[in-house]
Amino acid sequence: MVRLFLLDYGAGNVHSIANSITKLGHEFEWISHPDDFRKATTLVFPGVGAFETAIEHLSAKGLLQPLRDYIDSGKPYFGICIGMQVLFQSSTESPSVRGLGCVPAPIEEFSNEDKSVPHMGWNSIEFMDPEDTEHYEGMDQSSHYYFVHSYRAKYDESNLEAAQWVHSTAQYGREVFVASVRRGNVFGVQFHPEKSGVAGLKILDTWLRESESAQASAPTAVPRGLRPPRARDGLTKRIIACMDVRANDDGDLVVTKGDQYDVREKVLPAAASSSDAVQAKTAGAVRNLGKPVALAEQYFAAGADELCLLNITSFRHSPLHDQPMLAVVRAAAARVFVPLTIGGGIKDTVDPDGTKRSALEVAGEYFRAGADKVSIGSEAVYAVERLLECGGKGDGTSAIETIARVYGRQAVVVSIDPKRVYVDDPSSYPGPYKSELVYGKPDGLEKEKGKAWWYQCTVSGGREARPLSVVQLAQGVEKLGAGEILVNSIDRDGTGLGFDLALVRLVKQNVRIPVVASSGAGKAEHFVEVFEQTDVEAALAAGIFHRGVVQIAEVKAALQEAGIQARR
Ligand code: 1PR
């Protein structure tokens, strides 16, 4: 009898793989004891997070040697991300920790000289032996798969023994790295099939439906020699749909959306005419644009590359375990198979009974519920203020630092809400942000002409301004260990005027981690504009998608027409 086991070492979002496998109709059990390895006939290790955390947790739970024995026994093994990396000898992420050493090569960090690190997004793969269709394992050179990692195994044709393991490669910037390994009973992929939409589910399903003997008998690859980088890598620009979630006045969770963060329907001066009657009835109520899980499912089906759910009310009266948002995340994660970011309230909190919950615990609950990344807003601003007060060195206690240490920096997004501060006379502006001033263009918006401004950071959904510029914040959070920055614009939010290109460019030029442009998208061409005129990796929109003004497919088509790589 087939007994499929999943290995969870206790950190990161392993529920996504469980959800995918359930969705595909397979049954599984969790490895909870070293003896379970003996019962398993097939093992999937969906490693998420940091190499060191993975190895240490496995050792501490007495699972490392049984894992090694399982692999040596010849029974089928499928490792994902860190589950593939542990097969290697070592990782420069944690030099003191040894991997399983099946593949005699190191895992090293990507260079950020010519690109953002982490490598985050949908990339293509290239088989080592395209003729060997029998061992594609459901993978496809015309598909894109979701990668999220800072460390990789370089493709090194001179290391013949390691090259015999390589099944496919991918390219990021000029670096060609190992995307999958396949030999004997072992299959490992650097990307996340459980987050790679239909194309990823196909890989899992193909592998799980293979006979045990087919799973356990891939031939040793014949090393194929040099694989020089192509002119352009296969990474696509990501399109993200964002849902602001809050309780309405009846206590139901709804997706809402405001203009410049005011989510209540406008109150009319006087509901004079009968045509205003409906509007008058809803005036002042929280704008209701749909149910979060249903919308998430809809956006997944429509081709969104990633989804973002922001909890914009704090649910102060619920203990952490009963946070209504957790139920939303669980339900969404069971239905959508692309990355899910959760934001709002990722900070140290206190349950109604007085129990203290650290930001790390809060994030952990969301990861276990099925979130892939958490997004930190206000807390990030306070953390950078402390960082600057302490002379630019983090004390290790901030939410960014603690979460990145355990779950890896790729799991930590910082969502920033800057606001323009106009300067009366730029030529004589003596302020501290002179080098960050942006000047309105003669061919720009009417209200920007002849003006200059800098961007000030805010907290509490834009309600409070802080003495920090956007550049200080962006550089500070990168230093603290954030893996990505989501740049909102309070001035552009909900306006449909297009992304604030100057703001996005300013942030992008000052960091080496991926940046997501947000706020102001009004038509498909705005996405083309932001990718042509800035180097951001992704663009996010809310209002136009919720209101059906623009479909995600239209955005993708516009990008492809403009020669910008997009996932279809
Ligand atoms: O401070 O860590 O609890 O995080 C709170 C998070 O919730 C922050 O990311 C903050 O931006 C967000 N937030 C707080 N209040 C609101 C609100 O609307 N009242 N939503 C709010 C912010 C704006 C964007 C929006 C883009 C694109 N939402 O995320 O999705 O501007 O909109 P558009 O395409 O319609 O222009 P913490």
From TrEMBL:
Give the pathway: Amino-acid biosynthesis; L-histidine biosynthesis; L-histidine from 5-phospho-alpha-D-ribose 1-diphosphate: step 5/9
UniProt-annotated binding residues for L-glutamine: 81
PROSITE patterns the record matches: GATASE_TYPE_1
Name the GO terms of the biological process aspect: L-histidine biosynthetic process
From the UniProt entry, list the residue stretches annotated as the region PRFAR binding.
377-378, 415-417, 493-494, 519-520, 542-543
The UniProt keywords, alphabetically, are: Amino-acid biosynthesis, Glutamine amidotransferase, Histidine biosynthesis, Hydrolase, Lyase
Start and end residues of each Glutamine amidotransferase domain = 6-197
List the active site: 81 (for gatase activity), 192 (for gatase activity), 194 (for gatase activity), 244, 417
Q: Where does substrate bind?
A: 345, 488
- Family that this chain belongs to: Belongs to the HisA/HisF family.
Quote the protein name from its UniProt record: Imidazole glycerol phosphate synthase HisHF
Record the organism.
Gloeophyllum trabeum (strain ATCC 11539 / FP-39264 / Madison 617) (Brown rot fungus)
